[in-house]
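In full, the data:

***
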Amino acid sequence: MTDDFDFHGLDGLDPNDLQHEEAVIIYANELKELFDQSPEAQALEVDDHDRVFWPYELIILGFETEGVRVDRADAGAVRQVVLEIWPRLLHTTDKLHPEQAIPTLVGFWRFLQRAFEQPHADEVLAMLPELEAEFLARMQDPRDASRLGPRPAGVPAVNDLSAALDLAAIAGLNPATEDGRNELLTYCSGAVHRFYCAPEGEAARRYPQVVTAWLVNFLAESVLQGMASWPGELGAEDAEEVLLHGLPDKVMIPARDADEVVSVLQDFWRYLGRVHKLPNAGLIVSTLGAQKARFQEILAAREPGDGDLDRAIERMAGAAGLDMDDPRVRAAVTEDVKGTLLQELPGVDLDDLGDPDGVPAAGGMGTLPTRGGGGDPDKKKKRKAAKAARKANKQKKKKK
């Protein structure tokens, strides 16, 4: 049976391309089934689930996180997956027994050595027993911070993240109620916090508070606007709608950060694809990348002009009693306001920022006008109407 299997099938696949995910899963499933039917597997005294689980996760997590290809993996690559990747990403369950992992891998590598003449099998087999004690120690405590990687500032304690998160449960919420909205935000925040501690979240960990606003609002808007009952149902057109209109309506983002926002969103959806197995993850990643330029254009059109900001700064500084005639004070205030004013304002409709009675900026010292002048009723009506029309069009498409 092994003659019909392409042992080198991962060679042409890219671990960063979710379009290849299905091929990777097929490869892993076929190889684990071949092993499960082998004499090496039948000789193992381990549970049926463990016998196929550990080889499968070695193939999948090794390839997706480190680019490890089992057909030519050496001892160093296997060690990295077993000691660094598995303790961080795998959680023990009633059906999963870490003490059976190393014996299972020994049987698996004996199979690879016999059936495919894997070139590094001898060194891997010699090393595996040496890893067992350290591996079990790292897997023993699910609340050990080393299991989830470094915890950045602003991310909850590790014990809050140790439980599994079922995003499909979002479909059972009623976002029309306050309790439903709060539960929805809890699920979205939970997914984001776990993302920070995954390999895909490495770049996002540099500024978790800002990124949290981007990601939570992206997920929540897709449900609140009726585009999907849960993230796994979100389609390409709806993802485009959230990126280009929903997100800018909820979070104030400078146009210069457009590339960064899209990149982090793509990393987040790669994580959702790998960990939560969302079937639409690859499609969403591609859609986000294709809309990057348009996203930047929309953000640039929404950004307050320098004159608007300068006038807002003057009013705010005057209300605070600051001497703006002093060049040093002016420079310091301008730097501070421009560096912080364009940060996230989760849950705030940016149309309101231009109203005289809108949301106060910088601690209540006046309001930030939008491009085109604060409180422009015609412009505001047009934006509201356009938003309603987009939503109506989406509902019509869903009914067809």
In short: The two ends are 47 Å apart (CA to CA). The chain has a mean pLDDT of 76. Residues 2-140 form one domain. Residues 35 and 41 are 6 Å apart (CA to CA).
